[in-house]
Write a structure and sequence with these properties.
four-stranded antiparallel sheet; BACK; BTB/POZ_dom; Apoptosis, Tumor Necrosis Factor Receptor Associated Protein 2, Chain A; BACK domain-containing protein; POB1-like; Serine Threonine Protein Phosphatase 5, Tetratricopeptide repeat; 3 domains; five-stranded antiparallel sheet
């Protein structure tokens, strides 16, 4: 508007532009940029709120000053992001503006990804103050994401009800909120006892109870609904396998379980690298459907059941491996799980169940790491 040949850009005429009270500070910052060629130093510090930078973008678009737009986008890219920054960007940018500016669209996509990465582990993050401060749109974004991790959908619903309760004191309003968000729940991820649980009978579910019951009934009668109602990802992996340790050293392999986009299995074998041979236990990852993120960290615990108490005993303590480690080695474990030779383990009453088998288990969990600052897009 100011530089594009319109009447407002005519240097020989007085320029009258309409600036709202909400735009005043941003407009003054734009004028400063036009005269000095740079943004105020304060805007590059943590003291500047992301809302302020967004208001600069909106004013730059209104008055069509592309150099100012570029400077603000650069400032946003270089900023060390917080959750509140990503939330502001995800909510406050008009879609029409992101379609006009590919660089801005990439930033908004990055902001939404940041929110999902921060809160995808429901059990670990949905009780935090930062989660309870999220807006309606951001919670919808999380519920719709295929990256959301929860062992059961009951966990998602419980945490969601807490979030709803912080915004709506009236029961009827909470019912309305549940009805609005319920279509984003995943029926296939509810546990078998959900319909008989106290959670299912809560009054907040009055408007959706019949629909949920109908959805669960549909799942039981139609396999094709797996695509319509995909389950949630789990943040944890657990595989147990009972093994008869024989003199031949037969390798025992569990069924493969899909987790983090990969197929995992537990394997128990006679490990001849030791003399005498020992009991080896390993967690294997098969040919991946998608590559593991190299920087992801996975905590692994191997356990063995003891008798007659039927309690689980940890094997050699926890271990943490990265996605890059599994990409290179394909397995993690111990070649001497029971601290005794294979032949001795075959007779170890401490570990043998009434059927003469030893029960091993592996538990793996993605280690949650707080997202670091924004990476330039």
């Amino acid at each position: 508007m100011l530089f594009n040949g319109m009447k407002e850009s005519d240097k020989n005429k007085a320029v009258i532009v309409k600036v709202t009270a909400a735009e005043k500070a941003a407009f003054q910052e734009m004028l400063r940029f036009i005269y000095t060629g740079g943004l105020s130093p304060r805007l590059r510090t943590a003291d500047a709120h992301m809302r302020e930078l967004v208001s600069l973008l909106l004013v730059a678009d209104k008055f069509e000053v592309p150099t100012f737009t570029g400077a603000v986008l650069k400032c946003i890219r270089e900023r060390e992001w917080k959750v509140s920054d990503a939330a502001t960007l995800a909510d406050s940018i008009p879609e029409v503006l992101t379609e006009q500016l590919p660089g801005l669209k990439a930033i908004v996509v990055k902001a939404r990804t940041y929110i999902i990465d921060t809160f995808k582990d429901v059990s670990a993050t949905w009780t935090s103050g930062e989660f309870l401060d999220l807006s309606w749109g951001q919670v919808e974004l999380l519920l719709q994401s295929d990256e959301l991790e929860a062992d059961h959908e009951e966990i998602v619903l419980e945490k969601l009800l807490v979030w709803i309760g912080t915004y709506f004191a009236d029961l009827n309003e909470r019912k309305w909120a549940v009805a609005r968000l319920a279509p984003h729940l995943r029926p296939r991820s509810f546990g078998e006892e959900f319909l008989n649980s106290a959670l299912f009978r809560l009054p907040e579910l009055d408007l959706v109870r019949d629909d949920i019951r109908k959805s669960l009934g549909t799942l039981k009668s139609a396999e094709e609904d797996a695509e319509s109602f995909p389950p949630r990802q789990s943040s944890r992996l657990e595989i147990a396998e009972s093994v008869r340790l024989d003199s031949d050293g037969t390798i025992a392999k569990s069924k493969s379980v899909r987790w983090l986009g990969q197929l995992w299995r537990l394997q128990i074998q006679k490990d001849s690298r030791s003399c005498p041979p020992t009991v080896g236990i390993f967690l294997y990852v098969g040919a991946p459907a998608t590559e593991l993120e190299p920087s992801i960290e996975i905590r692994i615990d191997f356990l063995v059941k003891t008798w007659p108490g039927k309690t689980w005993k940890q094997i050699h303590g926890s271990d943490v491996k990265t996605g890059a480690y599994f990409a290179e080695n394909h397995s993690s474990g111990y070649k001497d799980a029971l601290d005794m030779p294979w032949d001795q383990a075959m007779q170890a009453k401490e570990y043998l169940d009434p059927a003469g088998c030893v029960c091993f288990k592996v538990e793996a969990q993605r280690v949650k790491k707080a997202p670091k600052g924004y990476i330039e897009v």
